[in-house]
Amino acid sequence: MANKYIVRQAIKDAKGDILGYEILYHGENQAFGSDAGAANDFAAADTIYSFLTQNSTKGLKGSLNFMTFTTMLLMKKTPKLFDKSELVIQIDDSVIIHPLSMHFVHQYAKEGYKIAVNEFQFAPRYLTLLDSIDYIKLNIQTTADLAMHNTIDIAHSMNKKCIVTNIRTEEEYNRAVSQGADALEGPYVADKLTTKAHSGAYLQSNFFRLMVAVTKDEPDVDEIERLISMDAGLTYGLLKIANSVYFALRHRATTIHQAIMTLGLGQLKQWIYLLSASNTSEQVDPGTEEFLKLSFMRANFCGELMKYAVDMPISKSEAYLMGMFSTLNHLIEAPLEEILNEVPVAEEIKAALLRKEGRCGKLYELVLSYEAANWNAISSLAEELGIPNQVLTNVYFVCMENVNVLWEQLNHSYVESEPEPSSAEPQEKKPGI
After folding, report:
1. What is the pLDDT of residues 351-379, one digit of tens each?
2. Helix and strand totals (H; E) in the chain
3. What CA–CA distance (Å, rounded) separates 62 from 59?
4. Long-range Cβ contacts of 364-369 (<8 Å, 24+ apart)
5. Which domains does the chain have, with CATH numbers?
6. pLDDT higher for 10 or 192?
7. Residue 425: what pLDDT?
8. 3-class DSSP state for residue 333?
9. What is the mean predicted confidence (pLDDT) over 111-118?
10. What pLDDT shows up at residue 276?
């Protein structure tokens, strides 16, 4: 049975802000949308249709999703599973040359769906589509600089946006930006961070909720642990202070729960007040917030995959920290090795994050490979870890949905979701909860 995966990859503008996500599919030994003959096309279409029918309300909501549709998927009316504001229908040459496809494409465009064309060419068969196209996508690996420059210029004169894809290196990234690309996509783009945050960078809305949680008459430790575990900066800071000389203990705190127990609620409350005083004027920019979200996604994915991985030398909570801490060198101005030496993470986690060694390294590499849609690496790493291939996509989308739901909650004012009196004076008597 062929391995089938669905993953999303970020599309960013030149400033590094997220424009949307490309939904990449691999199945039936073919990349989704490839010209593999009618039988394979039908099988691939049937697989992704079934998946989207079950999962279109999960994970993909609230973002702009670029998805390549085969003729079969267009005929099955698969785009109608999505809200018009959340979908860009991508088509490639195999759809354009199909005698029935153009009718469906024009119809979707009339209904308000946005249309993108992969590897666009100024050829007669593409020109008939121009009135319906919103995005032109150019593969930097197969498009010469002059052709790219001319295509982007003409596209802009016709109010079309151009996305340069398959960018693998910094040099290719700079070429695309210099040519005037509106957005960029590829392995390098997915990994590229336009800003570094300082050690005090954390999500303000999450932090305010944490302040409310610790100042309740009867604080809920599980709630406090959940709020801290959503933020790489807070998690790192908590573990560091819990293992400082001041709290010197025989057994070091290696999980968020242990760190909370080590400090105690009184000390934890003081630590949070100190953080609030030192960070009151700071604002987390959208790029950094998206990156914090990525660290949370990696943490969840690592933790959930531990349910299936065999012979792992770490626990699920340690795997969660591994995913969360994989991004710390971009949140704190220091090498990752130096940062990891400040907190008592397992040596297996250090070896995994720094050198991708051992079984933990394979788990970390699997998560990174899934992010990058590296199909061959996904299959081989999952097999080595004993993780059934068929569970990967569902686990990925469950994690994505959980992260999105929590982030949506955090984007609402904590005052709205916590209808309690102000926590500015924690000693004041408050109504029972």
Report:
1. 999 999 999 999 999 999 998 888 889 99
2. 21, 9
3. 8
4. 364/302, 364/322, 364/323, 364/326, 366/305, 367/298, 367/301, 367/302, 367/305, 367/323
5. 5-191 (3.20.20.450), 194-433 (1.10.3210.10)
6. 10
7. 37
8. coil
9. 94
10. 55
Per the CB < 8 A criterion, the answer to whether 373 and 26 are in contact is yes
Q: Are 22 and 38 a contacting pair, CB within 8 Å?
A: no
How many C-beta neighbours within 10 Å does residue 143 have? 20
Six-digit token string for 242: 């819990």
Confidence of residue 249 (pLDDT cuts 50, 70, 90): low
Tokens at residue 342, please?
Answer: 């400040």
Helix, strand or coil for residue 118?
Answer: coil
3-state secondary structure (DSSP) of residue 164: strand
CB 364 within 8 A of CB 351: no
Report the alpha-carbon distance of residue 244 to residue 29 in Å, rounded. Answer: 52
State both tokens at 107: 């119809």
Phi, psi of 55 (to 5 degrees): -120, 5
pLDDT at 83 over 50: yes
Distance of CA 301 to the CA centre of its chain: 11
Q: Tell me, yes or no, if the pTM score tops 0.90.
A: no
pLDDT band at 167 (very low <50, low <70, confident <90, very high): very high
CB 20 within 8 A of CB 82: no
Map tokens 């961070």 to a residue. 193
Write out the H or E segment, with its range, that includes residue 295: helix 286-305
* Mean pLDDT computed over 381-409: 87
Distances in Å between the alpha carbon of 35 and those of 39, 40, 42, 109, 418? 11, 9, 11, 23, 53
Residue 42, helix vs strand vs coil? helix
- Quote the longest CA-to-CA distance of the chain: 75
Please report the sign of the dihedral spanned by the C-alpha atoms of residue 316, residue 318, residue 324, residue 327: negative
Q: What is the pLDDT of residue 153?
A: 94
Q: Residue 417, CB half-sphere, CA atoms under 13 Å: how many?
A: 15
Q: Do 161 and 181 touch, CB atoms closer than 8 A?
A: no
**Coil, strand or helix at 204:** helix
Closest to 255 in 3D by CA, of 127, 376, 346: 346
Over residues 158-168, the mean pLDDT reads 93
pLDDT score recorded for residue 4: 73
